[in-house]
Amino acid sequence: MLRNLLSRTSIVPCFIALLLGTLVVAAPIVNAKGRPPRTVFLILPDAVTPPTVNVQAEAIGGGHYHLYLETEAFMFTEVCVAEAEAVPIGHAHIHVNGKKVASAFFPVINIGPLDAGTHVIDVVLRGQDHRPIVGRDGLAQGLVHITVPVGPA
Amino acid sequence: MERHVHMARFATALPILLLLTQRASGHEAWLLTPTEIEDLSSAAIPSLFRSQIWLGLAAAIAFAVTLVALRLEPFIAIAEKRFIAPFWKKYGDIGPLVLRLGLATMLLLGASGGLPRHGTSAWSVSTFLVPDMQLVNVTGADTLIVVQFALGVLLVAGLFTRACGIALVALSLVGPVIFGPVFWSYSPHFAAPGLILIALGAGRFSCDAVFNLDSADRLVAPYRQILWRMSHILIGAGLIYLGLAFKLMQPTLLIAILEHGDMPTFGVPMPIIALVMTGVEILCGALLIAGRLVRPVALAILGAITFLAIVLGETPLFHANLYGALFCIVLAGRCIPIAHGVTRFQSVRAV
After folding, report:
1. For B130-144, what is the mean pLDDT?
2. Do A139 and B249 touch (CB under 8 A)?
3. Is A78 an interface residue toward B (CB < 8 Å)?
4. Which of A84, B29, B65, B89 is buried most deeply by CB count within 10 Å?
């Protein structure tokens, strides 16, 4: 019977059946955790305090702003690596109206000049490999709205 | 005897698969906007990918389709013999030419920063083989840029092509050393074209042929079929890994990317489309490893990556290595001729 099973005609179907069977068993086990895609996000273990960021903006004239990133359970570093450990260390990406404008390696950064009008500033904490950090409470993200007045600020 | 050959083939493939079960990232993730990233962070995994019943049903259907395809293989082989084999006899040298030029374009643009990662300005950062691997704060970056540039120039000229193939295999192994396990998802798809170059040589349209410089031809000849089959196994293993690690185990990422590209669904739920894509990729990989339905599988993969490139608005140059390798496979099929020439075409059995 084993000889028949390993014959030239049946070994490929057997190989494919074994492969598919393994995946059918394994995939639901992995996916049951329901975690975000690990290749996109740096997922912190549940035991680690999730980092938070609160963003404050201060106008400094000419449409420029100081952004103060008040973080908790997070450490800034200038060092980037190809693949980071799951720890709350890294930098922040600054997006203005959905477009990335800067990376912040320190808790204070200058952005601008911004055009007159209202802008949404979105700050996401990233690991040392640039992946957005996700803790047990979700994405480590801060938002602030800035309204730039018309004319000299 | 044949049974042992089959078992040896699978035994060769298994360590490669195990080696590849590392964590890795894909360039597609960089396409997503901040809002899409935010949505993705809280997206629920579709029940289709969490249910053993649904996955089992899908696997049963996929298995049945595969069995039917395998039963049709002799008829497909007749059609291949009638339509593609004569083309290979006459124009087989186009295969290595396409592969060389595709690889050279990737290497030259990578070295000069002309093929940047999504969101990075062109010509600002050099990359290593693929757009994701930026040569920033990397030890030996200057050397790697020079090596890539030199390889690109030699491949365009078709000069010392088999040595270039060896160098490409070496670079695909250097990648994980420099960038870590993240590079293993790319390595097989650069090592395989390298092996194909070693096996096929540069072809007629090259300096090697014009100046009769291919002295390595005699050294490589006894091992051509082995190298050729190894290239299929590597491409197949790479496809299985990508399907497993990026699609089956991270379906929300695939769905987010497809939604980002506004892919037409014709009313079919996105999780089903994602599952079909996953299944096709894994089955194609398995069949390539097994050496069955090689030409149809290569055609199917070519079609799939072209479709995705169009949907996502990516340049085909991101996959020029695969386009070249798969084009060679479509032309030559499971076995390659002993003597790669027009007048001395002879077919041999694979090892």
Report:
1. 88
2. no
3. no
4. B29
The number of C-beta contacts closer than 8 angstroms across A and B is: 129
Distance from CA of A33 to the nearest CA of B (A): 9
Q: pTM of the prediction?
A: 0.84
Residue linked to tokens 């295999």: B169
Per-residue pLDDT at B10:
44
Tokens 């492969």, residue?
A19
B286 touches chain A (CB under 8 A): yes
Give the pLDDT confidence score for residue B71 in this predicted structure.
Answer: 94
User: What is the 3-class SS of chain B, one letter each residue?
Assistant: CHHHHHHHHHHHHHHHHHHHCCCCCCHHHHHCCHHHHHHHHCCCCCHHHCCHHHHHHHHHHHHHHHHHHHHHHHHHHHHHHHHCHHHHHHHCCHHHHHHHHHHHHHHHHHHHCCCCCCCCCCCCCCECCCCCCECCCCCCHHHHHHHHHHHHHHHHHCCCHHHHHHHHHHHHHHHHHHHCHHHHHCCHHHHHHHHHHHHHCCCCCCHHHHCCCCCCHHHHHHHHHHHHHHHHHHHHHHHHHHHHHHHHCCHHHHHHHHHHCCCCCCCCCHHHHHHHHHHHHHHHHHHHHHCCCHHHHHHHHHHHHHHHHHHHCCCHHHHHHHHHHHHHHHHHCCCCCCCCCCCCCCCCCCC
Question: Which H helix or E strand runs over A30?
Answer: helix A8-31
Beta bridge partners of A75: A89
This model of the complex carries an ipTM of 0.82
Residue B304 contacts residue B280 (beta carbons within 8 Å): yes
Look-up of token digits 């042929």: B209
Selecting from A8, A93, A95 the residue whose C-beta is nearest the C-beta of B2 gives A8
B237 reaches A (C-beta below 8 A): no
CA distance, residue B206 to nearest chain A CA (Å): 38
Query: Quick one: pLDDT at residue B346?
Result: 39
Contact B286 A36 (CB under 8 A): no
- Cα three-residue angle B155-B85-B232, rounded to 5 degrees: 55
- Greater confidence, A3 or A71? A71
B204-227 tens-digit pLDDT: 899 999 998 887 777 788 889 999
Supply the pLDDT for residue A47. 92
d(CA B87, CA B91): 6
Task: Report how far apart, in Å, the C-alpha atoms of B127 and of each of A84, B135, B189, B332 are.
Answer: 20, 5, 16, 32
- Rounded CA-CA distance A102/B92 in Å is 50
Measure the CA–CA gap between B280 and B301, rounded to whole angstroms. 9
pLDDT in tens, A54-113: 999 999 988 899 999 999 999 999 988 878 899 999 999 999 998 888 899 999 999 989
